[in-house]
Each structure stands twice: as C-alpha cells, then as structure tokens.
Amino acid sequence: MIPISSISFDSRVEELVLEVLRSGMIAQGPMVARLEESFGELIGAKHVVAVNNGTTALAAALEALGIGPGDEVITSPFTFVATINAILQVGATARFADVAVDDFCVRPASVEQLVNGRTAAVLPVHLYGQCADMPALAAVAEQHGLALVEDAAQAHGATIAGRAAGTWGTGCFSLYATKNLTSGEGGLITTNDDELADRLRVLRNQGMRERYVYEMVGHNYRLTDLQAAVCLPQIARYESNVGQRQRNADRLTDGLRDVPGLTVPEALPGRRHVWHQYTVLIDPIEFGADRGELARSLTERGIGSGIYYPRVAFDYDCYAGLDQIVEDPVPIAEQLASRCLSLPVHAGLDDDAIDRVVAAVRECAGGRS
Ligand SMILES: *Cc1c(COP(=O)(O)O)cnc(C)c1O
Questions:
Q1: pLDDT of residue 368
Q2: Closest ligand 1 atom to the C-alpha of 82?
Q3: CA 365 to ligand 1 center in whole angstroms
Q4: Residue minimizing CA distance to atom 6 of ligand 1
Q5: What is the 3-state secondary structure (H, E, C) of 40-108?
Q6: In terms of CB atoms within 10 Å, which end of the chain has fewer, N or C?
Q7: What is the arithmetic mean of pLDDT over 308-318?
Q8: R_g (Cα) of the chain, nearest Å
Q9: What integer best gives the mean pLDDT of the chain?
Q10: What pLDDT, on the 0 to 100 scale, is given for residue 23?
Q11: Mutate to test the pocket of ligand 1, among 174, 180, 189 (most ligand atoms within 8 A of CB)
C-alpha cells in the first residue's frame, strides 16, 4: 500500500518524548520554547508563538489583530474549512476571492475587487505547499491599510521572492498529523511584530501575564511540551524531507506531463514549493475517466489518493444563509474543486513507489481511451 500521507519518527523523537515524560513536567514549558526558537530560525521569523492547533493559530492571530464583529476578512474559497471557521470564531465576516488555476491560491486582482470600507484583513491560503502571490497581496493590503494573515498550514518553509510563508504578515501554521511538520495536534503563529507577539502570548495563557494577573480576556490555547518534543527533532531533518518531496514531485511530473486530459502541478518561478500535496487536474473526456474512477482504480492497485477539496469551503448547508458568510461568485475555485485529485508525494516514498503511481495513472488513462 502506498498511502497519501505517512509519518515516521526517528529515535531522536523517542528520546525527547521520554525526556519530557521523565522530567515530570509535560505541559507548556522549555520544550515549547525550543520548538518556537527552532521554527523561527527555520523560516526566518522574529517571533513564534506555539498554540494547540492550526485553527487556533488563525483565530488567535485575527483576535490579536483586533478583528471581530463587523469586520470583513477576504480569504480563499479553495481551502480546508478551518480557515472559514476561524473567521467565524472571532465574529468576523468571510468574503471569498476567486483563485488562480496555476497556483490554486487567491488572485490579488480578485481580492482587490472585494475591498470595501468594512474590510479588515486579507487571509490568503498557501495551498498544497506553494505560496500565494504574496508580493502582490502584500501590496494590496498595504495600499488599503489591511491586516495580512497567512494560512500557512500546508506551507512550512515555502518561499516566494526569497521570503518564507508566514513572514509577509502574521503566519499561521498547523502541526496536525498529516502536515509537513507535526506534533499530532499543534499550531504555530509567526510574526516580526514585537507587540503582536506579546499580545498573542498573553492571549494564549488565559490573558495572564504574571501569575493570577489578568490583562485581557484570554483563552487556553497552549501547546504541551510532550507535543513539542514530537515536532522539534523533525525540524533538523526538514530540509531533507522537503528535498525528497521535491524529487518525488519532479519524478511524478516527468512521468505524467504528457498524459492527455491530465494537468500536472507546477512550482511557479520565484517560489519554493514544499509539496505538501501533489495535485493534478483531470479533464474526464480527454483523460477517459473521471477523478472518481481514477481514484478507485488507484485504490485497486494499492495506491492512496485524496480530494483536497471536493467543494468550495462555504458550499455546505451549515454555512448557507449565515450573515457572516458572503457567498461571492468563485467559478474558478468551483471548477478546480470538481477536477482535483492529489497523488502521494510524501518523503516516505522512493523512486520505485513513485514509478508505481505513475504507471497506475497511465494505465487508467490508457485503459479508457
Ligand atoms: C490543516 C489546515 C488548517 C487547520 O489546522 P488544524 O491544525 O487541523 O487546526 C487550516 N487551514 C488549512 C489550509 C489546513 O490545511
């Protein structure tokens, strides 16, 4: 079986977890601080604030930036629902800019069209491990005086114009089990703003600066040292993990780029893609099978695949009619959602495994056409 994602932990993780267990102090402590420092070095961010998951990272970032009821946040419709839920959690209203077909991320021009007097923030999602067009999005945010919050849950170490995801605005990363870096559940907020970092640290800990001195109404958003110990050693080998993902992506592309009706993903010029997902687009007529048939035929051959995401994020009954959701027209995102399929690309795969994936996709195409 070749799964769509897999994780393996080396002995360093086992040792560090054991160290925390034996210390008798398993809640937030020195290991969380080491994780924050190490991640800050990895991506070049001045401050890192660890929290209990990626959704919390987004909600805490918005709250600390003062975004709440009455404010509009312009985000991507082509994302995991966590992005929307975080906006709703702080009481703000979600607006949706359409995405580009080449990077699956919001188009700066469609963001700009939605800006109005209520707009408070732009929240691009760096989907699949590739940065959105941040130079242009940062310019839009700056021009209109908007906060810039990045959903970098899938983009640890991705860069554009030499600058990492999470360092253009307030960065929100997830350490969920399937992400490129993981602690099981966890999140990291990055910022170069001293005051914002300070507010986030207080907000994370019940609004408490010193013991039983409450400065604001806060939350319990803390990560534990046990979780930090799972993630910390992965940072040291992260560059080689991404290198393997990149080699796997290149090999998939070499093997699949000439298949009719199949569009392979691209790392755009000036961007470092960290290949959280390798997502192809299927044209069912030309390919000779739709993506459901391709997924089933891959499963029959022991190969996992995934649909990220089958519909635009707000297209569910639970969001219909909510005042806080504006269903902006997003035809490109809808089209991508109906045609995308992600193939295994993770660092646990070698050339033979990738060749099996390529052969299985080609067989499915050939068998039908
Ligand atoms: C995983 C993910 C999140 C949420 O992270 P959790 O740690 O699961 O809360 C948010 N946005 C995107 C795009 C994600 O992929």
A1: 47
A2: 10
A3: 32
A4: 54
A5: HHHHCCCEEEEECCHHHHHHHHHHHCCCCCCCEEEECCCCCCHHHHHHHHCCCEEEECCECCCCCCECH
A6: N
A7: 97
A8: 21
A9: 97
A10: 95
A11: 174
